[in-house]
Structure formats: structure tokens, C-alpha cells
Design a protein that fits this description.
By secondary structure, the protein is an alpha+beta fold. It has one domain: 3-Layer(aba) Sandwich (NADH Oxidase). Helices cover 32% and strands 17% of the residues. The chain has a four-stranded antiparallel β-sheet, with helices on both faces. Helix 1 packs across helix 4 and helix 2 packs across helix 4. It is globular and about 60 Å long.
Length: 178
Amino acid sequence: MDFHETILNRRSIRRFTDSPVPEATILKLLEYASAAPSACNRKPWEFYVVTEEKFLSPLRKASRFTNYISPLNIVVCGNTRRSLPLQLSSYWIQDCSAAIENILLGATSLGLGAVWCGLLPQVRPQDRVRKILSLPEHIIPLALIHIGTPSEARPPHEGLDMKRVHFVKEGAPVEEDE
């Protein structure tokens, strides 16, 4: 699948077969995630790979938005010990989000399906995930990604909505949303 096809075919998949994701594929997804940009190259991410039902089942119940059955969860967390200082400390969220998008695109390119289930800023789901995975305080769960072989087909995205594109030129008025 070429890049254009990968981008347009990336959809949130919420139904999966029970086929396991091979370890080599998981490592490839993590390699893609680790190639994401990060502020000052701090790479403040931590990836928790979950394939055992003993952990998948309670993670499913972490929130109403995580309740999907898949053979693989990758929980993407921020390590605040590697985040930037002071007012820049929240950049870890953008950094980890870029890593998440790389996982999603990588999954699509490999013929897998995935769905990004946000945890931050929900306090209770974060606390549940923290407890299930025994995370220390400086590790903040940002998102849980369900990954597996899709058992549903979704049509590709249709592309660019020009109503959301604004070319900034000297003398041109800034348009307001209707």
C-alpha cells in the first residue's frame, strides 16, 4: 500500500478477529512509533504492549470508550521525567500523539486495524489503567490503542474538505465559521 492509500484508508476499526498479532509486527509498529517527532528529541513516550487476556479484559473496562475486543493493546504513556521543563512540560502530549498516529498508520499499512482510545484527560480511566499496569506516578497513560486483524470494512476517507482550508494572503480577509 502506498502512502496516499495508507493515509486515506486509515480508519478507526472497532471489531477484530481473534488472530494474534505476530511479535515481529508489534516490534515494527513500535519502531514506527519511535520514529515520531518529539520536542527537543526528548522522546518522552513509554509503550506498554498487552496481549494476555488477564490484562486485556480489565483494560477493556477502563472506560466506556475502551470497551473493544482485540488481541493487542498498546498503551501509550508519557514519561514526565523526560518531558521538557516548566511551561513546556505538556509537550509530551503532542509527542506521544505523534507516536500514536505513526502506530495507526503503520497498522493500516500492514493490513491491520486499530482504534485510538483516549485516556487523558479522563481521571478515572487513567487511574484504572495505572493500577492495571502498575504504573509509577511519573508515567501518565495518554491512550490505549486496540490493534488486530479487522473483522469490519470501512470505506476510505474522501479526502480534502476545501471549506476547512484557508490560504493566508496579504489583504485577504480572515473568514469566520458559519
